[in-house]
Design a protein that fits this description.
The protein is of the alpha/beta class. It has five helices and seven strands; from the N terminus they run E-E-E-H-E-E-H-E-H-H-E-H. It has one domain: Transcription Regulator spoIIAA, CATH 3.30.750. Helices cover 41% and strands 20% of the residues.
Length: 123
């Protein structure tokens, strides 16, 4: 992983198999591999819901979008729910232009993502 300590961190403060992965300020060739590894590690820990917190993300290039797709594909294969939360306008625009906003759920806040979790699934 090429990120410095503290640049990305995984939190599970909502408990019950929910992991929230915070993004670095810039998601590019130097950070995207580490982000993908963190997301996939959360899925491997049998998280039932993995959310990527985009609130601090101000720049995302194609390698960053690839990391999102890699995590989403791994989540689908594992039966884990996945979503993006709180993208800034410029990141939301990239998600919209690329079509990824229709491939993966995008929520305004973590609370919005958690409010939509199905009670029957126990997530």
């Amino acid at each position: 992983m090429t990120m410095t300590h503290g640049e990305n961190q995984t939190m599970a403060d909502h408990g019950g198999g929910i992991d929230i992965v915070r993004m670095p300020a810039e998601l590019d060739l130097t950070t995207s591999e580490g982000v993908a590894a963190l997301g996939c590690a959360a899925i491997a820990r049998l998280a039932r819901l993995v959310l990527l917190d985009l609130a601090g993300l101000s720049f995302c290039d194609a390698s960053g979008l690839t990391a999102f797709v890699k995590i989403a594909n791994q989540a689908d294969a594992a039966g884990c729910r996945f979503g993006l939360i709180a993208p800034r306008p410029q990141v939301a625009k990239i998600l919209r232009i690329s079509g990824l906003d229709s491939r993966m759920p995008v929520f305004a806040t973590a609370g919005d993502a958690l409010a939509l979790r199905p009670a029957a699934a126990g997530v």
